[in-house]
Amino acid sequence: MNNLTKFKIIKPANEVFEAFVDPAEIRNFWFSSSSDRWEQGKTVTLRYDEYDAQGDIEVLEVEINKKIVFKWGANGDGHIVTITLKELEKSSTIIEVNEDGFNENDDNFISQLIDNKEGWVYMLTCLKAYLEFGVKNLRAGLVK
User: Fold this and answer.
1) Domain count, the chain
2) Which runs of E-coded beta strand occur in the chain?
3) Separation between Cα atoms, residue 55 and residue 133, nearest integer Å
4) DSSP state, 105?
5) 49 secondary structure, DSSP code
6) How confident is the model at residue 7 (pLDDT cuts 50, 70, 90)?
7) Whole-number Å distance between alpha carbons of 56 and 44
8) Is the pLDDT of residue 87 over 70?
9) What is the pLDDT of residue 138?
10) CA 84, CA 5: separation in Å to the nearest integer?
11) What is the pLDDT of residue 133?
């Protein structure tokens, strides 16, 4: 089962793409740090200082300014995330985040989907605020 989230960012696809793959950019809206540039075949360590949490993603596919596919999760139960960028007239981008790997038979399936959707919407809201308005302090605004 997958979970799809879409957002419109009023920036060209290349700026949205770089925000994800460049360690100097991603810390402004999502993770506290990224160990490396996101490139196909790399394992990248991501850190959340606010949660004292760290984990690795495996970057499976990168299509410059169009798509990023990565796997994250523990114990071989990882999910596959596909971030797709569709540029509209070089002034805005529709970003789609599709996360696949949810178990429909899990007792917590619905709450997992809801929690996951909330996370993607929040991250994309922070991305929009960062790219469109230069706001860099939302990333840590909601700490559970």
Assistant:
1) 1
2) 2-9, 33-34, 43-48, 53-63, 67-72, 79-88, 92-100
3) 29
4) T
5) G
6) very high
7) 5
8) yes
9) 81
10) 11
11) 96
Domain span at 111: 2-133
In a domain, 113, yes or no: yes
d(CA 22, CA 18): 5
Q: Residue 88 half-sphere exposure, CB side, CA atoms within 13 Å?
A: 9
Average pLDDT, the chain: 92
Mapping DSSP to helix (H, G, I), strand (E, B) and coil, where does residue 86 land?
strand
| Domain-embedded: residue 28 | yes
Tokens of 110: 């619905």
Query: How far, in Å, CA of 98 to CA of 141, rounded?
Result: 24
HSE at residue 81, side-chain half, CA atoms within 13 A, is 19
Q: What is the rounded CA–CA span in Å between residue 38 and residue 135?
A: 23
Which CATH number do you get for residue 71? 3.30.530.20
Task: Tell me if 73 is assigned to some domain.
Answer: yes
Structure tokens at 109: 């399936």
The rounded distance, in Å, linking the Cα atoms of 94 and 29 is 17
Q: Is residue 88 part of a domain?
A: yes
